[in-house]
């Protein structure tokens, strides 16, 4: 089943727990994290990256949230302005083990949306797919700063997949695990 979708990768965080480095540009397996995430959405009609331009993503549309570094809700608000497909994959830029089959599984399971659930049963709000119209309406009404507060009321299908596609790189230890290629399946997301 092929679902027409765009992808919105949020890549503008401050990476405080990593010492303020350019987290999307950190390399895992020889590629910047943001390029690994972009490779997980090869069927996206449009690739939107909310963050600094990247030479390794020549076909991407780069936008900035207002204010820059304002968090995931302002970043989503900026990215959603460029979405034209009926569905959007909303992804963090630091998911080294996300693959096309994970995004396809989310798209195939979605009602108004689908979100990946980690090994501890927690929703990972930056690994999901959403009906663009529903997300746009919810965002127009929402004044908070929490993705959970915005997305949970949309009652997404919760998806658990094998492996650790939800694993993200927030700390030096996370980055070490990602570079070793074998994060513990119970690793913190």
TrEMBL record:
The family database entries (InterPro entries) matched by this protein are listed as:
MobA-like_NTP_Trfase, Molybde_CF_guanTrfase, Nucleotide-diphossugar_trans
Q: From start to end residue, where is composition biased (Basic and acidic residues)?
A: 173-189
Q: Name one GO molecular function term.
A: metal ion binding
**GO BP term (any one):** Mo-molybdopterin cofactor biosynthetic process
Keywords of the record = Cytoplasm, GTP-binding, Magnesium, Metal-binding, Molybdenum cofactor biosynthesis, Nucleotide-binding, Transferase
Q: Give the region (Disordered) as residue ranges.
A: 170-189
Q: Record's superkingdom?
A: Bacteria
- What protein am I looking at? MobA-like NTP transferase domain-containing protein
Organism, per UniProt?
Answer: Streptosporangium carneum
What taxonomic classification does the UniProt entry list for its organism? Answer: Bacteria, Bacillati, Actinomycetota, Actinomycetes, Streptosporangiales
